[in-house]
Amino acid sequence: MRAVDGLTFAAETGTVFGLLGPNGAGKSTTIKILSTLARADSGTAFVAGIDVARHPARVRRSIGFVAQKSVADPMDTGVENLVLAGRLQGLSARDAHARAADLLDRFSLTEHGTRLVKTYSGGMARKLDVAIGLMHRPTVLFLDEPTTGLDPEARAELWAEIERMTAAENMTVLLTTHYLEEADRLAKRLAIVDHGTVVAGGTPEELKNDLRGDAVIVELTADGDPFAALEALSRVDALREIGGDGHTLRARADNGAATLPAALAALDAAAISVASATVARPSLDDVYLRHTGRTIGKAQENYALENAS
Fold first, then answer.
1. What is the H or E stretch that residue 62 is in?
2. Residue 309 pLDDT class (50, 70, 90 cuts)
3. pLDDT per residue over 41-96, tens digit each?
């Protein structure tokens, strides 16, 4: 089975480029290849204009890498972790301490710099991980699912730091994520990845606008028959792209507000009970659904089931 199959994209210098998809889509494998941690069987890849396969050492000097799991030593302080990272990248002791102080200030960690990392909250630890990746001022920074496991407040704080950091450092950031809001907020352009291939690409607004119209979402009650409901909705002329994910049915309409009453009337005529119904502007989840036939949430569930021990 191929983890990545013909995946092609280009990131604009000085921007955040997002790879959006569920676990198992091939995002982390792509980053491992680009960061020289894995070798592709075929194809070519360039990072900061450098051929990854021919000049891996040059690529490593040009990039920063923030993995899904923390790389900080929990038994060292924040300052010690940063200085060590700087020294390993060739900075002098003086420059490493100066850069560490600058990054601690930028990530609002100055008062915690002398504490052991094991005492940090999850959000603080992830900020430190990103700071470690920035110590040598890389041209390209890889962020592999940087906010997984964080609570909403810590995630929002890290998003703000990533936005500020990208502007301040003027570097290219490659972000992998399965969080729709994260991709929508941070990425100037993104590629939606499914089973190792890019199924759609563009700016978040371009991808959403391509869908045209509104999303009509109907949640059935527990005793509702999804198949009968899909058949009933198919008789509403104004609806298109009708599909279901369990008891959640989705369709598109040029004017969702005007079409919703007709959709509910069709379901009522078929004696199908509705728990809720909403109309919304297109989302990245709608984009993913159109191109893959399932939502990212459902894809995440399927991956978890397939890989359950």
1. helix 56-62
2. low
3. 888 999 999 999 999 999 999 999 999 889 899 999 999 999 999 999 999 999 99
CA Rg, the chain, in Å?
23
Residues 100 and 88: their CA atoms lie apart, in Å, by 13
In the numeric block, which tokens belong to residue 239?
């609806």
What six digits make up the tokens of 48?
């900061």
The pTM of the full predicted model, rounded to 2 decimals, is: 0.82
Q: Which two tokens stand for residue 250?
A: 């989705």
- Give the separation between CA 269 and CA 256, rounded to whole angstroms: 20
What is the residue-wise DSSP string for the chain?
A: --SSSS------TTSEEEEE--TTSSHHHHHHHHTTSS--SS---EETTEETTT-HHHHHHHEEEE-SS--S-TTSBHHHHHHHHHHHTT--HHHHHHHHHHHHHHTT-GGGTTSBGGGS-HHHHHHHHHHHHHTT--SEEEEESTTTT--HHHHHHHHHHHHHHHHHHT-EEEEEES-HHHHHHH-SEEEEEETTEEEEEE-HHHHHHTT-SEEEEEEEPTT--HHHHHHHHTT-TT-EEEEEETTEEEEEESSHHHHHHHHHHHHHHTT--EEEEEEE---HHHHHHHHHSS-HHHHHHHHHHHT--
Length of the chain in residues, anyone? 309
Q: How far apart are CA 47 and CA 82, in angstroms?
A: 24
Beta strand 46-47 with 240-245 is: unpaired
Phi, psi for residue 158 in degrees, rounded to 5: -70, -35
Domains in the chain: ranges and CATH: 16-206 (3.40.50.300), 212-281 (3.30.70.980)
Q: How far apart are CA 189 and CA 1, in angstroms?
A: 28
Mean pLDDT throughout 179-206? Answer: 92
